[in-house]
Amino acid sequence: MFQNPGVYPGDQNQGGYPQGGYPQAGYPQGGYPPPGAYPPGAYPQGGAGYPPGGYPPQPGFQPGFQPGYGGAGGYGEPTGYGPPGASGMPEDGEVKNFDFTDQSIRRAFIRKVYSILMVQLLITMGFIALFLYHTPTKLWVARNPFMFWIAFIATFVCLISMACCSNVRRQSPTNFIFLGIFTVCQSFLLGISASMYSASEVMLAVGITAAVCFALTIFALQTKYDFTVMGGFLLCAVVVLMLFGIICIFIPSNRIVTLVYASLGALIFSLYLVYDTQLMMGGKHKYSISPEEYIFAALNLYLDIINIFLYILTIIGASRD
Q1: Within 13 Å and on the Cβ side, how many CA atoms surround 117?
Q2: For residue 10, is it within any domain?
Q3: Domain range holding 163?
């Protein structure tokens, strides 16, 4: 019956399987395990039977991560052992920390942007007040018109540099130097423009601008409409406004045309203020500005407010002329 007579499995004296091979005519009671059910090299040693609960794992084996041991014919479904996140399921703590960190960065970014913007507006108001109430300064600028062109060229160069060169607006202190030069030159130009009007008209324009900007900012924070998708539309509107302004240069002075042009300008830059505010806030909006672009965000908001002020001042001046 056996090729090489030996001892049956389970014999307490000898143990193990019969020497010379397995029996040809059937298996002992209970049967041998089917082929391929045990990992290679993991059969139990000795004749004490198999340990309860399964076979001992190979060295370095981790259930659920090594191929060939999960699913059918293996040790069951992966249990997710191993380092956090290795099973594709992030821990709750990691998600919460990520959200909290992102919100903290965004809040710090917003505080930094509005702090820079407040400093810019204070400098601008200082120049406007100087030109309105200090007559020697106004006369000195009138006698030296080259100062206007120096400030205009410096404003244009700084604006193009910060808008087109990411290194200029991201690297400190270069970004603050360019922004400071731009703010001073722009404030100088605004002071010259404001000196063309009476102090009461300028102060009325400042009050209306402040109220409009505050209301638009609150609206941008609370509205469910996403204005960040209107970038293309606003760009087209600005191009049309610019062409309209060029045409108005060659048209004889007309108060109606001036009022229409200034009203369109105030409307377009009011929309731009909402657009730039939502870009800065991020969150639920489709597009947002990187927290590294705090100089660029402050520059956008400052230009929006300044343009709104100039167009409102033009409207007041044209209506009172």
Answers
A1: 22
A2: no
A3: 100-320
58-72, 75-89, 303-317: range with highest mean pLDDT: 303-317
- At position 173, the amino acid (one-letter code) is P
Residue 4 belongs to some domain of the structure = no
Phi-psi region of 41 (alpha: psi -120 to 50; beta: other; left: phi over 0): left
What is the secondary structure of 236-275 as a DSSP string? Answer: HHHHHHHHHHHHHHTSPP-HHHHHHHHHHHHHHHHHHHHH
How many Å is the Cα radius of gyration of the chain?
Answer: 39
DSSP 62: -
Instruction: Give the amino acid at 9.
Output: P
Q: Count structural domains, the chain.
A: 1
264 Ramachandran zone, left/alpha/beta (phi>0; psi -120 to 50): alpha
Predicted TM-score (pTM) of the model is 0.66
The string of pLDDT tens digits covering residues 1-25 is: 444 444 444 444 445 555 555 555 5
Q: Specify the pLDDT at position 300.
A: 92
- Tokens in use for 155? 């404003």
- Could you tell me if residue 14 is inside a domain? no
pLDDT digits (tens, 9 = 90+) for 210-247: 999 999 999 988 888 888 888 889 999 999 999 998 88
Residue 71: phi, psi to the nearest 5? 80, -150
Residue 64's pLDDT band (cuts 50, 70, 90)? very low
Using alpha carbons, list the distances in angstroms from residue 112 to 12, 117, 148, 272, 295.
Answer: 82, 9, 31, 20, 9
- The candidate with the shortest Cα–Cα distance to 68, out of 37, 93, 108, 46, is 37
Cβ 18 vs Cβ 8: under 8 Å:
yes
Burial class (CB in 10 A: 0-12, 13-18, 19+), 203: middle
Q: Spell out the residues 6+ positions from residue 307 whose beta carbon is closer than 8 angstroms to its own.
A: 265, 269, 272
